[in-house]
Amino acid sequence: MEKKRLVIIEGINKAGKTTYIKENFKSEPVIKLPCLFLKDNVRDLMNDENAPIYVPLLIAEHIAVLEILLRRENNESVVLDRSFISFFVYQNMYINFENDNIKYLLYLIERLKKEYDIKVFLFLNKKTKTVDENDEIEKMEYGNLEYYKNQFEHCCDKLGLEYELQ
Predict the structure, then answer these.
(1) β-pairing, 116-123 with 4-11?
(2) pLDDT in tens, 12-27
(3) What pairs with residue 4 in β-bridges?
(4) Hey, where are the domains in the chain?
(5) Whole-prediction pTM
(6) Would you list the DSSP string of 49-61?
(7) In what order do the strands lie in the sheet with 116-123?
(8) Helix (H, G, I), strand (E, B) or coil at 119
């Protein structure tokens, strides 16, 4: 049985991910995460001092998307604009890997690897030198660029996902 194709576009903010998708994946369906279902601005959610209460919602969203991908009947390629990789990188301080929902998410990722040919493109270089001073996540990332670059690569390695740096 031929594997389905899944392209995952990941990386830091303002690195050219959206532009790359628009230029290279005009006919493939694109699923943009996070907040596909939540319909809130994730920056507003995660900047809140109560961010840990939103993590279960984000876990549920990633589980739902992986369940949908695993149930697909056709072999059409799919593109994820961000994914569980970003979730593990940015919410790692709130994640308990002994949590049953996290264990289930990791199980689904393993199933996904069996059914899909997965290609991860990591965008880890900012395309702009300016930082939006009103964007807390952007300021945080820009101040710790090497840390986030290492986290994305480490996460892909831990999950057994091959990646290509862009």
Answers:
(1) parallel
(2) 878 889 899 999 999 9
(3) 116
(4) 27-165
(5) 0.84
(6) TTGGGTHHHHHHH
(7) 30-32, 78-81, 4-11, 116-123, 163-165
(8) strand
